[in-house]
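Here is an idea for our session: we take a single protein and study its fold together. To get us started, please write out a protein record for me. Start from the sequence, derive the backbone structure tokens from it, and show both lines together. Go ahead whenever you are ready, and we will take it from there:
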Amino acid sequence: MEGDVRRLVDASARAARRAGRHLMENSGRGADARAKAGTHEHDVVTELDAAVEAMISADLTAACPGSAVIGEEGGARGVGGGAASDVRWYVDPIDGTHNFARGLPLFCVSIGLTVDGVPAGGCVYEPARDELYTATAERILRNGRPVERPPERAVPMILTDLPRAGTAADPAELELFTRLLAAADVRRIGSSALALAYVATGRADMAVTPDAFPWDYAAGRVLVTASGGAFTTVPDEPPVPDEPPAPDGPSPTRPGAFAAWRPGLADLGAAVVESLDKFAFLRDWREDDNGLA
């Protein structure tokens, strides 16, 4: 099985590199950002998002016929029966779209792989640095080579999107943000997948995001856990449905929060997860999903 997963991760790496080259070649064209329908003005999309996602989807379903691709822009594609119907890809074609549209080199292509609902592999490609992060459950590689973590720093670096943009901050968000500022060097880079890749490779020590969808973290979580770190979602992830989302329809999955950290930060990680669990908007979503609202 491990060999099959590696083959699929290699296929995702080829797709991510091809998509990344396309982004770099067309970064001056089709990069005008507009707000997504039904969201706030901070949640933006470009013409390239959908085009690149379609390119990736075609590559992945060709590499694994019958698998499902759940993307940020296009919902589910390539959903079908057969031996590969238990394989799902979660694709964010441009994670860090706002950065990309403004010419900031902090964006990536993110492709996460699940098999039978279990995270099995991940690929994050950072075109501006030409760095490819890949992982299975057993190992993490950067540009095909094992990653050597740098020495731990006295003050940890935390990458976070706290507080949320485009909405009034939950008081619990501001409280957690204040605590993080007191405990660490805090940065906001605008890409959940890159934040997780940086935690996995030692460029950062923790990543905290209050509202993310599975395509934002499906790849990065595998990078982190393969490096020996920890990854937790809040609320806990719901059971994987028997059937994938309807083709070309939006994912019914609600956004949620996540925290990830390197080895040695378990106490701080547990404290952050406890704080995330107090966010009112996350409690409301949990109650809605449980039929309590």
About this structure: Confidence is low (pLDDT under 50) at residues 238-252.
